[in-house]
Amino acid sequence: MSNAQIQSLTGKVVIITGASSGLGEATARYLAARGAKLVLAARRTDKLQALAAELSAAGTDVLVQATDVTDMAQVQALADATLKRFARIDVLVNNAGIMPLAPLAKLKVDEWSRMIDVNIKGVLHGVAAVLPTMTAQAGWPHHQHRLRRRPQAVYALRNRLQRNQVRRARPVRGLAC
Ligand SMILES: NC(=O)c1ccc[n+]([C@@H]2O[C@H](COP(=O)([O-])OP(=O)(O)OC[C@H]3O[C@@H](n4cnc5c(N)ncnc54)[C@H](OP(=O)(O)O)[C@@H]3O)[C@@H](O)[C@H]2O)c1
Hints:
This protein has a single domain (3-140, 171-176), classed as 3-Layer(aba) Sandwich (Rossmann fold). The protein has helices spanning 3-8, 22-32, 45-57, 72-86, 109-137, 141-149, 151-162, and strands at 13-17, 37-42, 62-66, 91-93, 175-176. With 177 residues, it is an alpha/beta fold. It has a five-stranded parallel beta sheet, with helices on both faces. It starts with a helix and ends with a strand. The chain binds NADP nicotinamide-adenine-dinucleotide phosphate.
C-alpha cells in the first residue's frame, strides 16, 4: 500500500463484519494503526469488546455492534448505529464468513444453506445497508433518479463515464466483499 493510500485511511469510518476473529480482527488492527475510525461487528461481543478496549486504549475511535449478518434488520441496525455515532460510512469490509468443509457425498445440506445465508445473503445485506449512504455521500441520488426515469440516460451516462468526462459522478468506493 502506498503512503498516499495509507494516509487516505486516516479518519475514514470503516465497518468490519466478522471482526471478532481471524481476518476481520487482523483487518481491524491494521486499519486502527492507520488512523481509521472503526465499527466492529460480529455475534461474539465479548471478543469485540476486548478488541475495542485494546484499540481504543491506543487511540482509535471504535464502536462495537452485535450483528448477525444473516439478519437484514441487524445489519441495517449496524449501519444506523454507525451513522448515529460517526455521521458517515466510508468503507464496509464485508468479511464475515464461514467455510465448513465436508465431502459433497456427506450431503450436509444444512451447512450448505448456512454458507449461503452467511457468505452470500450476509454480504448482500451489508451492501443493502450501506449503499444508500455511500451513494448519497458520493452525490449520486440525482443521477439515480434520472436513470430510473429515462433508461436512455443509462447509456449516455455510461458513455460519458467511459470517456472519463463526468466530473461530479464519482464511483462508489468502499465496498469490499
Ligand atoms: N483465513 C484464511 O486463510 C482464509 C482463506 C480463504 C478464505 N477464508 C474465508 O474468509 C472468511 C473469514 O476467515 P477467518 O479465517 O477470518 O475465519 P474466522 O476466524 O472463523 O472468522 C469468521 C468471522 O466471521 C464471523 N461470522 C461468522 N458468522 C457470522 C454471522 N452470521 N454474523 C456475523 N458474523 C459472523 C465470526 O464472528 P462471530 O462468530 O463472533 O459472529 C468471525 O468474526 C471465512 O469465510 C473463511 O472461509 C479464510
